[in-house]
């Protein structure tokens, strides 16, 4: 399988029915994407495929042949969302944070609270009660 | 991930023609958004190990109107349905149902064809399709055929679809009157429905369809007939409660489903009076 | 005027959690690593008759109880729980056999046939005769006072299991080291794991434990990790290879600990004008199949069972009962959420019975300085029951709001609660916790066994040390909890990491400051070299506790809270939507306001799940809905807006006046929610208050 991974053309040699999550973590060593449930319920495994957030624990590798995949590593270490998640304590234990940030990338400037809640409805957090996550996103996306 | 990946086999196709040719020759389960695939494999409810990946078939993504008929390609995702101006204009309750499926990640991959093929009694789009008397369009190497959505399911997770047939589209005739939809899940998002209802009402007819209260999605025919014959709301609610067959399961109880289905049908009838 | 303490300074975690660089247990890879799997019992009670290994053994390492070099007993309060079944099975999912293999598919495909002789299991704690622990708290003469009370109100209240759902499941990697093994893992208490490993592996095996970045704990990684660490260590020692065991979500939910279910019965005598004169409370907890931490959960639950109220005649009788279910264990709140749920709903019912405003009832009876608790502890200036109650009532305009909602589908509900900080009674003295500060060429390093699990340990400790030493916060580093490097500061539990361990660090810093004599660490190090200050915790000397009579000062201090929740019910579907929640908490003072607020919002969110959504369905002694699809925790759309008020009442025994905070928020939401539902005329006495329950509920 050939895919574009964080902007680079890469070949994946894992079995075609491997979960994209496992291919990212094990074949490519990108462990920023996490497994929280393996059922598509928690969103900790969220990556972007062709710009759209999806649960990588549900996607067979065969279906990203030729696709554009972006993981948390592709964001670098200087994105406003990353800074504000730490500053505003949108991340406590941090295990849901990569998935949250990937899901939040779909939000534009000055999102309303409702926009944010809907965008994150597929991401579970057990630590924060979500409030600080909203504050982090509002701040990061404020213009 | 408990399922042995090495036992799973997949072929990918990019056209309907290729898909049906493969399905004529090999026993393969089509996979599209695959939002239930690994879940079903790990849970042990999916026995098959051979799959046909149809995610790339662009021709199945169209949403269009032909005359009076709204045609939705099988690979239209919930996100596509939410964003489509055509759906918003003609079948807003389908957009509403789509917004209540999972969260954005699931909406970006789950498809209407998958929802139909998966045949869960709790499928969120299915009462909508039942209430509007949709038609399922099937294609095989032998050609195309249409099957009425009401009657498509013959039992729990069983349908009239033959193993070599691919669901390519669902067609909806013009819907007259008001559309009403309500899903009761286990929580506000990312929830499997405990009761899900779609209703359509114009001056002359009422159509009511429910999910999660029987082995398949059902039309409340006796209730509809009684209303057509002048039954009161109270009588209709009583009939509705008698005609559904909900069960106790891990998420809810028969008693709750029966009670709430009746309450929501009452709400539907009152709202659309 | 403090510079770092009291400010929301940049956290010591860096940016790794937000870039994917932070390393959790499953992110670790070692050369030659094997994967481990646990074969578990499928019956709730009986004996193993035979085991048949039905797979090609090539490449497999297999471990059973005979491979245990030390004692097959997990060393906790008792030593009754084996690491591996020898013959007797006491619960479904009890570990019997361990397998390891390089190839995960081969590992998961290995077929093991276990034959059992089954026996009839006990699932009902009210029917069980196995008492894991009994506690009696007596004050005054309850029977006499009940006999002369104007009115006696009775009620029974129930709470179910609650599952932690830390988003990172339990996982460890055990790596053979010279003469022994090192275990890296997701855990709260590295020194508990050491204790467990020493028991399991014996004196000749050197053991070391390193905490990896941990994706949530909430108590679920307090005692359980000793078990999974022991398993991985056994496989690693037998195979000579690193072994990784990561539970998937289903295994984690089925096999590991949960919150103790409770049945609490109240009989309360009151005067016509609303004074509590007698409180008779019976607490029953379902402990599951082994003792684990049930004695201390029961203890804390019983001590809090009479609520933050004045009552001269109180009797609290508690029992933790054995059942053939997976053992229950630590979960944020640790017995208090259960018993404070009961007492707060009971208070509401007392108000209903007296036709008295329930806020007024609380105002009349809330503890004030000079009163004593059920254990006879004297409340002093750090008692803030009225402070938080009055502020919550004022801020939410509670009485007016309640009145305006009468007859509608909306309601407000209130709960008043408290939470003892630190270990009960003499517990902190027994723990003998230590902290160490090392002077290095870079600055100062904190070396404690306390773990960062999201609550902000690293940051908060660094703030305390920086402030005390008067050196920049940036010059403080925090050592990763590696038992070869840090000292045993006691477990990261019981809301003690700031108040207790932070206090030891403050003392260390004061001594270090004296020694530095005004020099900067760098200058001192250049001139004199490195040095360390090691201190142990000195509990306040006025704390007097009698473990036998269960009387005296149960905790050095308490945190106080009052929650007001506003919610709406859908009369067609009985779905409950929380609209807003005001949480007024007093916990001394916040060291890091944003982190403190995070504890309140997060704990409150978990409390709402406990109240409305989280239902563990047990069938034949095991969790039947062990998927996140079916055991539902709140999503963003289920969580209301939080209004958090942090009141200050500095506690002299804590660093810079801080008390404990982590668990307090868990005690309030469930009774506040149920009291709101009672205002909607629903006679709810049990949680989770699911729509199914509400649909069948009696009306008031």
Topology, please?
The complex is a heterotrimer of chains A (143), B (273) and C (700).
Chain A (H helix, E strand, L loop, with lengths): L1 E4 L2 E4 L8 H8 L18 E4 L2 E4 L12 E3 L9 H8 L9 H8 L8 H7 L11 H10 L3
Helix pairs in contact in A: 2-5
Chain B lengths: L8 E4 L3 H10 L3 E3 L5 H7 L6 E4 L9 E4 L2 E5 L4 H6 L1 H6 L1 H8 L4 H6 L2 H7 L7 H6 L3 E6 L2 E6 L4 E3 L2 E2 L6 E7 L5 E8 L7 E9 L4 E6 L6 E2 L1 H8 L4 H11 L10 H18 L2
Parallel strand pairs in B: 1-3, 2-3
Antiparallel strand pairs in B: 4-5, 5-10, 6-7, 6-10, 8-9, 11-12, 12-13, 13-14
Chain C lengths: L15 H4 L14 E7 L5 E9 L6 E3 L24 E2 L5 E7 L2 H6 L1 E8 L12 E9 L2 H7 L2 E9 L11 E7 L2 E6 L4 H12 L4 E6 L13 H15 L3 E4 L2 H7 L6 E9 L5 E13 L5 H10 L10 E9 L13 H19 L3 H8 L19 H12 L1 H8 L4 E12 L5 H5 L2 E6 L4 E4 L9 H13 L6 E3 L18 H20 L4 H8 L3 E5 L8 E2 L4 E2 L4 E13 L6 E11 L6 H20 L5 E2 L2 E2 L17 E7 L21 H11 L6 E2 L3 H6 L4
Parallel strand pairs in C: 1-12, 8-28, 10-11, 14-15, 18-19, 24-27
Antiparallel strand pairs in C: 1-5, 2-4, 2-6, 3-5, 7-15, 8-13, 9-10, 9-12, 13-14, 16-23, 17-18, 17-20, 21-22, 23-24, 25-26
Helix pairs in contact in C: 4-5, 7-8, 8-17, 13-14, 16-17
